[in-house]
């Protein structure tokens, strides 16, 4: 058996293990897990593109709701020298998995201070530094509108003026919930979408569809305004599929 086959088999085994872990946690607590499978490579690349767009400039980066680390694995190689990454995860088992990922990642050998995992809620995170890029994997449609407003406000507080936030939303969830959920749940879902739509109107710079994900998703990119108040009626570039 050659080295490539051994390495390939190891990667497949790791992905299968993570997939099962994600599914178990989804069954245990879907409200905070928010999905039944880790993010695809295509989704991870779109979410982390703003990091690579900065080139060799050292950045402060925050990843919230990292899960089993499917996006984190794409993100770490994209960090420029001197960058700092804070990872926030509220799920105890996922946080433990992420710490193991950071300890064993070959690119982080000798760079123990470059990446930190915080087992907490993003609303409670206080590292004392603003961020150039925030990548969110939080399941907004599982939260209340008030919680979403609180989280989005916190993101904007944590970003540098001009900093970038990326997050994703699964496609078709409103229609699915309208068919399967109670009226109360359907109203909550619509209210969450309205909160997010307000931020999209004021701050969005792009939205892309990712069909090669389970389930398919939209990736939104928002930018914190350079001035205190965000401009309204901002044009949004929508409909680019990668």
Summarize the structure.
This protein is an alpha/beta fold. 43% of the residues lie in helices and 21% in strands.
Strand count, sense and barrel status of the largest sheet are:
8 strands, mixed
Helix content: 40-55%
General form: globular
For the termini, the CA-CA separation is 36 Å
Average residue pLDDT: 82
Topology order in helix (H) and strand (E) letters:
HHHEHEHEEHEHHEEE
Total helical elements = 8
Q: Gyration radius, to the nearest Å?
A: 18 Å
Return the CATH architecture: 3-Layer(aba) Sandwich
Number of strands: 8
**Number of separate structural domains:** 1
CATH superfamily: Vaccinia Virus protein VP39
CATH topology: Rossmann fold
Fold and architecture overview:
- This protein is α/β, with parallel strands linked by helices and 242 residues long.
- The protein has a single domain, classed as Vaccinia Virus protein VP39 (Rossmann fold, 3-Layer(aba) Sandwich), CATH 3.40.50.
- Helix content is 43%, strand content 21%.
- The protein has helices at residues 3-28, 30-33, 41-53, 70-75, 92-104, 145-158, 173-180, 183-203; strands spanning 60-64, 84-88, 115-118, 131-136, 159-170, 204-210, 217-223, 238-241.
- The protein has an 8-stranded mixed beta sheet.
- Helix 6 (145-158) runs parallel beside helix 8 (183-203).
- The radius of gyration is 18 Å and the shape is globular.
- Residues 1-17, 19-31 and 230-242 have low confidence and may be disordered.
